[in-house]
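Hi W.,

Here's what went into the run:
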Amino acid sequence: MTGPRTGAVARGGFGGFVARARAAGTLVVQPRMGMADPARMREGLRAVRDARAVTVGTLTLDSYTRTGDLAAARRALADGTGLNGYPIATHSTATTRAVLGGVADGGFPVQVRHGSPAPEHIVRALLAAGLDATEGGPVSYCLPYSRTPLREAVEAWRKSCELLASAEEFGASPHLETFGGCLMGQLCPPGLLVAMSVLEALFFRQRGLRGISLSYAQQADPRQDEEALTALGRLAAEHLPDVDHHLVLYAYMGVFPATPGGARLLLEDAARLAVRAGAARLIVKTTAEAHRIPTVAENVRALETAAAAAAGEHARLAGSVRGGVRGEPVLAGSGRGGGYGGSLGTAGGAPADGRSGGLVRAGGLPAGALRVEDTGIEAEARALIGAVLDLDADIGRALVRAFAAGYLDVPYCLHPDNAGRTRTSLTPDGRLLWSDTGSLPIAAPRGPRPPILGSAGLLAALSHVRRSYDARAAAGPPTRTPLAPGRPVPLPSRTTSTPRRELGPTTP
Amino acid sequence: MEQHGETGTTGPGAVVTTGLDVVVTTVASDSHTWNLVFLQLLLEELGHRVTNLGACVPDALLVAECARLAPGLIVVSSVNGHGFPDGLRVAAALRARPELARTPLVIGGKLGIEGTGADARRRALLAAGFDGVFEEGGSPGAFPAFLRALAPGGRPPLDGAPVPVVSGARR
Ligand code: B12
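Here's what came out:
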């Protein structure tokens, strides 16, 4: 849930767990983790559960399972070729139940992460194994993940959503997360990411889901990200008043810093951003991201690093809000210029709901409470969402028509159903702008918007974040955002087993 | 380096080529495309003409497209960690077609999931029919050198153009 104003009912399962964590003042952190071997997968889940953080677990699936090539998955298991994830539709249901048994429960929900344009076999397998939480979307798991015609992906996702939603009849609490806030992982202006996330959430709702999370992936400028998350929270509350929902932030999804130090700084900034901007859950990246599939230990370290950074940010905000009065800097966003974690800005103001000077809501700020400069992200997202919804009452059909008309057009996406006429401009300080809006129903760019040109230009844009964070790591101890006076940062919580128990259901 | 394809020079007085027709592709399981966009731009800047097949290219489609286009070079890129097994399969499928049996064929990217074992993979991929294997972490100049050897008439890399991080080709 994004706060008391949504009026949604707290539920069990994945969504209920996250809602309780939020109410208790903790950011939920989650890995991207999957390995082929059931014993290692189980070990990984246990390690995530036992990490010093409030965590949910993940089964990340391998590419063969994602693309529906189950014969290749079977072959790889048979001859021991490494897989880049857990082949849930190839291992037997009994095997997956054994992986989860005594580990996954109401106090440690597990989500299946895949990336499939046609996920019915995956939804079937996860339901059979007793799980009910997964993610994706008809657009976000088609365009960046396949060459499947969008129309077919929409149809497959319709069936998959209905199948997942039907599990509610059997006492499950199905939860589905949009991947629309990530798309290609990098170089997509935030207005489109926010719009896609909301549109996929609306698609899920129309297909019967009542537990939804909306994603947004950290980009290259903290202020832009704060603004985008704020817009996403507001639009979600508006469009999904009757649905239990929360925001989930993905730590940077593009070319990752190559050094462990740079990777850690970027992850910490993601965690702080999540807390500031009202996300209830964060999906982490590890120090191995730029190089290879991470180990369990690297995942656990990433979870603990993120949890500690989130706790620190939380304490900082609690301090600055307690001390604030209306009109003074209260919920300050991050500063401009220094990139993530730069100097403290003065963009203050009372929370949008008027509870000025009140305590920061436990679990970070309510979505939408952060005062951010309005550069037009919300208006852009609204225009995109409105134009799509006007095309057809059936959101799946509307999405297909929107891509055909170029009302939705993902920059640099090669999928045949993507018009491919939009382009991005990256400012020197990391803001993502349109250099070409193609047929998007938004204003064409004003002012100089240098396009990204050539292989060198593309590589430079793709590695902007890597470069800045590796440089910051090399420059020595980070210049941390100053704390509110007199408020020490609490040590990373060593007592998360306690909140974990509190968060779990009273009966297993 | 042995020359393949119609655009190669064959001796004194041979026509200087103006670049190759190149198919840029990935393997069936791999949905990453930034690598493909990057390679397309790079190859075009070097004077080649590129057909980019996009994400998750099924073996049959790849073989059919290559048979249809009769390219002077096939560039396979994969970073999802399945590039090694998928690459072995793809090489066998391409080499089984008589008209593609000698088409220059290279692969590169991140081909395994552990970030190690590149040497063994490289040997197996070369044995399977690839003419060059360019894994991340190898010598940066290897791929441009391979291209120059293949199409001497192609333009040299633009000054300041990035060279992909790669390891050595065969020979
Ligand atoms: C962006 C990204 C994504 C985006 C991709 C969007 C898209 N459509 O392209 C999204 C989020 C969708 C995604 C999804 C997945 N991803 Co991904 N992704 C990345 C990420 C962060 C950046 C890749 C990128 O864009 N690089 C920019 C391009 C331009 O460069 P490049 O691909 O690195 O290639 C360079 C060189 O290798 C070289 N090169 C590449 N190919 C070739 C070929 C030749 C011939 C030559 C000469 C050179 C060459 O040239 C490039 C420039 O130097 C990397 C990690 C990282 N690098 O930080 C992970 C990563 C590549 N992904 C990974 C994985 C596993 C996946 C998934 C399977 C999910 C999962 N299980 O975790 C899915 C893919 C599903 C599928 N069916 O395959 C792994 C691969 C692990 C491995 N090989 O050991 C990585 C390394 C992350 C990780 N550490 O786990 N991903």
